[in-house]
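BUG: 3D viewer hangs when loading the predicted structure for this chain

Environment: internal workstation, default settings.
Expected: structure renders.
Actual: progress bar stalls at 90%.

Input used:
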Amino acid sequence: MQALAMEIESFDERRQCEPTRVWIESGDGSIARGVMEVLSADGACVRVVGADPIVPGSEVAVRMALSRSAPTLGARARILWVRSAGESVECELEWTHSGAEREQLARLVAALG
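Structure tokens produced before the viewer hung:
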């Protein structure tokens, strides 16, 4: 828990030079990698590069890395929409998980707000 608190405190400083990396795993095991554009208590917007097709409405597992040296934060989400944006794809996620992971995410979002 202390490690998460330290990560939250220094997240804003690192955020400007190091993007939050995201992995989105579909039910079939395929993994799309991307960068977090927006993070909120309700969901996130992710820019995915070189991804397998991401299907709106599907339930996915998500891992977020605030920095290369930090442990990842896990979540469950539903993909609300997907659109092409040049070489990448943007998608909006809606968080669907609860429990300890949801509490960690809520603390992170509150610290950023």
